[in-house]
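User: Can you recover a sequence for this backbone? Please restate the input before giving your answer.

Assistant: Of course. Working from this structure:
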C-alpha cells in the first residue's frame, strides 16, 4: 500500500522531532491527521483499527510529515525516536484495549512525556464528573463518582483553549473525495452506552426515534450509533426488531453505506438535519450548520443547560413537535496548528516532571 519504498542514508536525512499519536478508533485517526497538517513536527500515528489501513491508503491524502502504523510492536521497537506521545486516553480504564496498553507501557518504560488530548467534547478527566454513589468505571450503569485524574504528564484541550481549537474546524482536508453523491437524509447520532443514560432514557430515546421515522415514511433516516451502543448490555440492543424500515443503521457491514464516508463526523456533514444525544457530534452539527434536535435527560442536564442555542426534546411527542436548530456549544474554535505546535514545544522545553500515576500503567 505504500508504493515504492526508497532507502535513505541516515547521515543525510534531515531529522525533525517526531511525535507518537495514539488513537483508539478511526475517527481519532482522522483527528490526528488534521492535527498534523502544516505542523513542524513529524508524526507516527498509531491506528488501532487495522482494518481501516486500506481506506487510509486509497481514500486519504496523507500529509508529508505523517506515517501510519497499526502494529503495536512496531511502535515499541521505534519508541526511542519519539520526543513525546499524544494520547486520547488519559485515565486507566478497565476496558482499555490491550494493544494501546502495550504502546503506553513502552512510553512509560523509557520516560517519554505523555500529552493527553480530548477524545470527547464532554469527558471525564477534562470537563466532566458525576455523582454516582456506586463506583464502577467498567459499568454501563455506574460512574466514577469523583473527578478522574489523568496519568498523562500534560493535558491540552481543543475546547478550553481558543489558541489551539478543534482540529476538524480548519480549511485543510485529508479526504480525496469531499463531495460524494448521497440522498437527502436525516442523520441520527447516539451514544446511550454512556452510563449517564439509564435504561429508561434508552427506552424513551429509541421510542422517540422510531416514532419519528414512522410518522414520516417518505423520509430516509440514517442511524449512526456509538460502536458499543448496540451490545447486549444496552437496552436499545433489544429494541432493534421494532425499528421502522426507513430507519437504517450506517456502516459498510450494516444496512446502508456511502463510499468514502467512514466516520460519523463525515456523515453529519452530508445530512439535511439530525437527531442526537449529547456528544462530540454536536460540534459537527455546529461547524457544518446542520440543524439538530438534541435528546435531553436528567443525567446530562448540566450539559444541555450550558448550550447557548439548542432544540431539546425529552419525549417522543416533543421530538415530533420539535424544530431542529443549529446548536451553539460555546466550545467550537478554529484550529491553529501553530498554536498546537507552540503548546507542545513549550511542554518539551520545560523540565519534565513525571506524573507518578503513569507507574500504575505498568501494573496492569
Amino acid at each position: 500500500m505504500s508504493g515504492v519504498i526508497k532507502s535513505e542514508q541516515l547521515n543525510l536525512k534531515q531529522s525533525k522531532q517526531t511525535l507518537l499519536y495514539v488513537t483508539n478508533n478511526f475517527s481519532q485517526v482522522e483527528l490526528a491527521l488534521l492535527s498534523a497538517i502544516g505542523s513542524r513536527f513529524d508524526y507516527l500515528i498509531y491506528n488501532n483499527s487495522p482494518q481501516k489501513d486500506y481506506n487510509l491508503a486509497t481514500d486519504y491524502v496523507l500529509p508529508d510529515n505523517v506515517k501510519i502504523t497499526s502494529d503495536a510492536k512496531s511502535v515499541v521497537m521505534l519508541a526511542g525516536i519519539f520526543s513525546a506521545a499524544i494520547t486520547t486516553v488519559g485515565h486507566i480504564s478497565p476496558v482499555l484495549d490491550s494493544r494501546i496498553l502495550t504502546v503506553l507501557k513502552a512510553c512509560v518504560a523509557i520516560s517519554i512525556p505523555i500529552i493527553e488530548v480530548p477524545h470527547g467534547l464532554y469527558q471525564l478527566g477534562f470537563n466532566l464528573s458525576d455523582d454516582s454513589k456506586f463506583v464502577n468505571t467498567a459499568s454501563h450503569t455506574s460512574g466514577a463518582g469523583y473527578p478522574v485524574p489523568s496519568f498523562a504528564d500534560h493535558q491540552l484541550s481543543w475546547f478550553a483553549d481558543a489558541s489551539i481549537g478543534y482540529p476538524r474546524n480548519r480549511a485543510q482536508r485529508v479526504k480525496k473525495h469531499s463531495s460524494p453523491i448521497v440522498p437527502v437524509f436525516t442523520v441520527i447520532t447516539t451514544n446511550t452506552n454512556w452510563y449517564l443514560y439509564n435504561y429508561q432514557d434508552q427506552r424513551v430515546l429509541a421510542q422517540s426515534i422510531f416514532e419519528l421515522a414512522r410518522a414520516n415514511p417518505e423520509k430516509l433516516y440514517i442511524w449512526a450509533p456509538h460502536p458499543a451502543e448496540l451490545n447486549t448490555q444496552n437496552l436499545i440492543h433489544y429494541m432493534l426488531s421494532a425499528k421502522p424500515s426507513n430507519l437504517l443503521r450506517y456502516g459498510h457491514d450494516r444496512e446502508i453505506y456511502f463510499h468514502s464516508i467512514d466516520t460519523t463526523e463525515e456523515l453529519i456533514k452530508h445530512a439535511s438535519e439530525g437527531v442526537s444525544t449529547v456528544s462530540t457530534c454536536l460540534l459537527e452539527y455546529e461547524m457544518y450548520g446542520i440543524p439538530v434536535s438534541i435528546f435531553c435527560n436528567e443525567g446530562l442536564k448540566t450539559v444541555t443547560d450550558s448550550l447557548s442555542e439548542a432544540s431539546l426534546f425529552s419525549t417522543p411527542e416533543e421530538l415530533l413537535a420539535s424544530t431542529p436548530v443549529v446548536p451553539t456549544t460555546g466550545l467550537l474554535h478554529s484550529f491553529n496548528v501553530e498554536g498546537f505546535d507552540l503548546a507542545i514545544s513549550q511542554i518539551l522545553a520545560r523540565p519534565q516532571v513525571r506524573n507518578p500515576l503513569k507507574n500504575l500503567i505498568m501494573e496492569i
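That completes the design. The mean pLDDT is 92.
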